[in-house]
Design a protein that fits this description.
single chain, 188 residues, alpha/beta, Rossmann fold, five-stranded parallel β-sheet, 2-phosphoglycerate kinase, P-loop_NTPase
């Protein structure tokens, strides 16, 4: 079983991966760590940490795809989280692989961002990882990122979970979905 978690930055991907690790006792891979490891190991790797999500995603996806396939072939479980898993990448996987993947694409509604930008989104962006830099995006920019990400998810026909009002309550639906998919896979 492979759990893929993708969302715009500061949406709770790493926190979700940490909680799933604790629940299922399977490791997780932060794509940010892979990105920085590759960049620090070879600054001529084809991207910089400041490049946009699609540029970095296109460079990292072949590696991530190989990790996913290898884990599935070996019957190993892993959680992979990061904003660089773009929805259209999943179409590249053969059904023998994709049926063993639980994809989770998360986002915030415009309403949620407007009501919770400072008090919840910015305040909790360090819940698991230490981010030394302040939030640089404006509310308007964050709304645009989430709107575009949602459109990409819908266009790629992947399940998209949108937090509208109450993060703590609505995120439980995502965990219920993952639990149900895990049970389904256990029967395969």
């Amino acid at each position: 079983m492979i759990i893929l978690i993708s969302a715009v930055g500061s949406t709770g991907k790493t926190l979700m991966a940490q909680k799933l690790l604790e629940r299922y006792h399977i490791p997780y891979l932060s794509i940010d760590h892979l990105k920085m490891g590759l960049y620090r190991g070879d600054q001529h790797c084809g991207f910089t940490p400041l490049d946009d999500t699609e540029v970095i995603g296109d460079k990292l996806w072949p590696i991530l795809k190989g990790i996913i396939m290898t884990n599935i072939e070996n019957g190993q479980h892993i959680i992979i989280e990061g904003c660089y898993i773009l929805p259209h990448y999943l179409k590249e996987l053969d059904v023998n692989y994709s049926e063993k993947i639980i994809p989770v694409f998360l986002g915030f509604s415009k309403n949620y961002i407007q009501k919770n930008f400072e008090a919840k989104i910015v305040k909790h962006r360090n819940a698991v990882e230490l981010r030394n830099s302040p939030e640089e995006r404006t509310i308007k920019e964050l709304i645009k990122e989430h709107k575009e990400f949602k459109a990409h998810c819908l266009q790629s026909d992947v399940r998209y979970f949108e937090i509208e009002n109450d993060y703590c309550k609505e995120i439980l639906e995502v965990y219920d979905y993952i639990d149900a998919e895990k049970r389904r896979m256990d029967l395969i």
